[in-house]
């Protein structure tokens, strides 16, 4: 049976550990090959039998209902609108938490009247217990229900279990106010945590708010407002000043400035006029534009970007995987320690059981790992969102984390470090052909090639073409072209092509690209073609060296002299020239090291195999290029190599934030745990060490989203 991938939305999920449980249960569904729950975007991606994956709503909803009430799972719509990032208002929160509010009122009322002696002791004891029990059940019912439900399924060790045991224990030793207070402040903390998670998701949504909600379609001499998904290739749309361009296309009338910052991270707008290509996600700034659509929405640039960013969190970083596994073993471990704290001192020293039992309860409250499980996935997703905002598409948290380990960067030359816009600078004939005739002959040989060098020759010859039906053209990879024209064999290409065919050259050194020509085994002459170094390349190499990337290498199929000049001007450490495509792969393989990461930077089209073979493939100028997006792990939206330094800086910032959360959470919890064992921490300190630390970690995550 054919396999299919489907995406489902989750509304109301703010508990990361619940998300892990939903994912784990869903993986048991027959017919599914893979299930990945993305907590940051509140989506579930499933892969499996085509019939099965498209009819999972009810099964997934049943699983969710067993694990976390109030969560709604629906099949993701095809219009690109993500309900998964819906933000619940404060008013809605308060209505959902009305039981919590009523319970809190009863609790504080009970605390108030506990200081009066109006009632008799017996009556008072019974009344106060009723008040506290009522408040406790109203406030903690969601926790109690989840705890007992999970125990029934054998899923014992989670935060619901910890809070239930801790508060039940407090009731057992007559610490009624503390039992209710712990549950109250835990639930209030959960409320703030939900709010913080939703704020984080809203910030993520703002970063990805590049899709136009409508398109102005020209139909029967009228303008009709429709969804971008309804527009077909070849139809014409109007984009007014201030509107987002909804689909990729070509301007057919009008001229205006367009803002590209949402796609490329560049703040300066660029001018477009009739004949220019524009991309979905750009913003038309000042004049009316009429655009002929070149791609349907599902193939458009904005759709590719949204899919890449939203799916990035499914590829988890090693740190995320470690924390998930750590939480699985950490909770039962601390429960065991708490049991020993409660039992061993009374048994060994005869100390009061109530005293040590109370300390064990504090230990349990502290131990919940929510701060880590919630904040770390959001931290990585925030880094991915920030990178996207800067015109850098990172395909997953694993690649963002891998950037921190890169110590060797290998660049392709043409189109990456140089402009890739070739220009004929010299033509030299050593035959009966005049220089103009030689140029036109080269254009005739090169006319069916899409290579930039071929295009520059055709352009210099004023687009000269003289193709006859009996002509034969054969492109030789990494060498040039062999053609049969009018019964004669012609060669146009590099030094290797000439040597392989026994052609003796009279000129073979230049600091530019050289195309040699030969006819029937005789050398005719050469054409020099120059390619300028990008101004941004100098800045890129300078920044990378300042970031301790000492080993910078360049690979090219160009001649040695041209490669040497580029490497020397840029200050590149090593270069390898005159490489065929397969030799580039071999060279990359020889540069790979076991414990170090190598990143290859190419244009994403001709270098797809090398991008795939590297530890980290970075495609540059890949905006709208299917080959770039498919082959690379990271796609730079512009052709600026300095974006690599920006990507490294974002990766470094994300790593720093994630480890701040890990160290902060574990340190505070460890200190309070130790203090609780020695009787120096109260239940209030325990609540802070649990809920308070989780909130601090989330607020820390939001720093990267706001930067």
UniProtKB/TrEMBL annotation:
Any GO MF annotation of the entry: metal ion binding
Keyword match Magnesium: no
Catalytic activity of the protein: Cd(2+)(in) + ATP + H2O = Cd(2+)(out) + ADP + phosphate + H(+)
Lineage top rank: taxon: Bacteria
Species the sequence originates in: Halanaerobium polyolivorans
Gene of this entry: cadA
Keywords (A to Z) from UniProt: ATP-binding, Cadmium, Cell membrane, Membrane, Metal-binding, Nucleotide-binding, Translocase, Transmembrane, Transmembrane helix
CDD domains registered for this protein in UniProt: HMA (cd00371), P-type_ATPase-Cd_Zn_Co_like (cd07548)
Transmembrane residue ranges: 100-121, 127-144, 326-344, 356-381, 657-678, 684-705
Topology in membrane: Multi-pass membrane protein
Domain HMA: from-to ranges: 4-72
Listed SUPFAM superfamilies: Calcium ATPase, transduction domain A, Calcium ATPase, transmembrane domain M, HAD-like, HMA, heavy metal-associated domain
Family: Belongs to the cation transport ATPase (P-type) (TC 3.A.3) family. Type IB subfamily.
GO cellular component: plasma membrane
Predominant localisation class: membrane
Protein name: Cd(2+)-exporting ATPase
The EC number(s) this enzyme carries: 7.2.2.21
Location(s) in or outside the cell: Cell membrane; Membrane
């Amino acid at each position: 049976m054919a396999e299919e991938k489907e995406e489902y939305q989750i509304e109301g999920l703010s508990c990361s550990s619940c998300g892990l449980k939903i994912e784990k249960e869903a993986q048991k569904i027959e017919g599914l090959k893979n299930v990945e729950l993305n907590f940051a975007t509140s989506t579930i991606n499933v892969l499996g039998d085509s019939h099965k994956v498209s009819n999972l709503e009810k099964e997934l909803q049943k699983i969710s209902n067993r694990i976390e009430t109030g969560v709604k799972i629906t099949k993701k719509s095809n219009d690109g609108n993500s309900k998964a990032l819906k933000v619940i208002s404060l008013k809605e929160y308060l209505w959902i938490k009305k039981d919590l509010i009523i319970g809190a009122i009863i609790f504080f009322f009970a605390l108030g009247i506990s200081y009066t002696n109006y009632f008799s002791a017996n009556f008072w004891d019974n009344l106060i217990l009723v008040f506290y029990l009522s408040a406790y059940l109203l406030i903690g019912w969601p926790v109690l229900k989840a705890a007992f439900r999970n125990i029934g399924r054998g899923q014992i060790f989670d935060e619901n279990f910890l809070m239930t045991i801790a508060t039940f224990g407090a009731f057992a030793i007559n610490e009624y106010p503390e039992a209710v207070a712990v549950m109250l402040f835990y639930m209030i903390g959960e409320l703030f945590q939900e709010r913080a998670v939703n704020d984080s998701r809203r910030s993520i949504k703002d970063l990805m708010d590049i899709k136009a909600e409508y398109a102005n379609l020209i139909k029967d001499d009228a303008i009709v407002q429709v969804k971008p998904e309804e527009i077909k290739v070849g139809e014409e749309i109007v984009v007014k000043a201030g509107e987002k361009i909804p689909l990729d296309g070509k301007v057919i009338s009008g001229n205006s400035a367009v803002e590209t910052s949402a796609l490329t991270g560049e703040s300066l707008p660029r001018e477009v006029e009739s004949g220019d290509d524009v991309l979905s996600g750009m913003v038309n700034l000042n004049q009316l534009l009429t655009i002929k659509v070149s791609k349907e929405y599902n193939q458009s640039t904005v759709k590719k970007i949204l899919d890449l960013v939203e799916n990035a969190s499914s590829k988890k970083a090693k740190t995320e995987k470690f924390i998930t596994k750590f939480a699985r073993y950490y909770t039962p471990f601390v429960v065991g320690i708490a049991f020993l704290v409660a039992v061993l001192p009374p048994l060994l020293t005869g100390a009061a059981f109530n005293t040590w039992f109370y300390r064990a309860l504090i230990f349990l409250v502290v131990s919940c790992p929510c701060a880590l499980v919630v904040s770390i996935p959001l931290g990585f997703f925030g880094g991915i969102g920030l990178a996207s905002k800067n015109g850098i598409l990172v395909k997953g948290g694993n690649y963002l984390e891998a950037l921190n380990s890169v110590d060797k960067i290998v660049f392709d030359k043409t189109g990456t470090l140089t402009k890739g816009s070739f220009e004929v600078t010299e033509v030299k004939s050593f035959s009966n052909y005049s220089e103009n005739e030689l140029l036109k002959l080269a254009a005739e040989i090169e006319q069916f090639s899409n290579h930039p060098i071929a295009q520059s020759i055709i352009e210099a010859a004023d687009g000269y073409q003289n193709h006859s039906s009996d002509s034969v053209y054969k492109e030789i990879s990494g060498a040039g072209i062999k053609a049969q024209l009018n019964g004669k064999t012609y060669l146009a290409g590099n030094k290797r092509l000439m040597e392989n065919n026994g052609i003796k050259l009279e000129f073979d050194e230049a600091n530019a690209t050289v195309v040699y020509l030969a006819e029937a085994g005789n050398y005719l002459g050469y054409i020099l073609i120059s390619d300028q170094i990008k101004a941004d390349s100098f800045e890129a190499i300078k920044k990378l060296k300042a970031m301790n990337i000492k080993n910078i290498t360049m690979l090219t199929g160009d001649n040695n002299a041209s490669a040497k000049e580029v490497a020397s001007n840029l200050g590149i450490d090593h270069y390898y020239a005159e490489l065929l495509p397969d030799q580039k792969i071999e060279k990359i393989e020889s540069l790979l090291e076991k414990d170090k990461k190598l990143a290859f930077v190419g244009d994403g089209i001709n270098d797809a195999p090398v991008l795939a073979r590297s530890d980290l493939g970075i495609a540059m100028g890949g905006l709208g290029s299917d080959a770039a997006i498919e082959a690379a792990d990271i796609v730079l939206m512009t052709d600026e190599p300095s974006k690599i330094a920006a990507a490294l800086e974002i990766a470094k910032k994300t790593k720093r934030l994630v480890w701040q959360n890990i160290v902060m959470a574990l340190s505070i919890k460890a200190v309070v745990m130790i203090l609780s064992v020695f009787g120096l921490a109260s239940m209030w300190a325990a609540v802070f060490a649990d809920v308070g630390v989780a909130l601090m970690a989330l607020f820390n995550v939001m720093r990267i989203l706001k930067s």
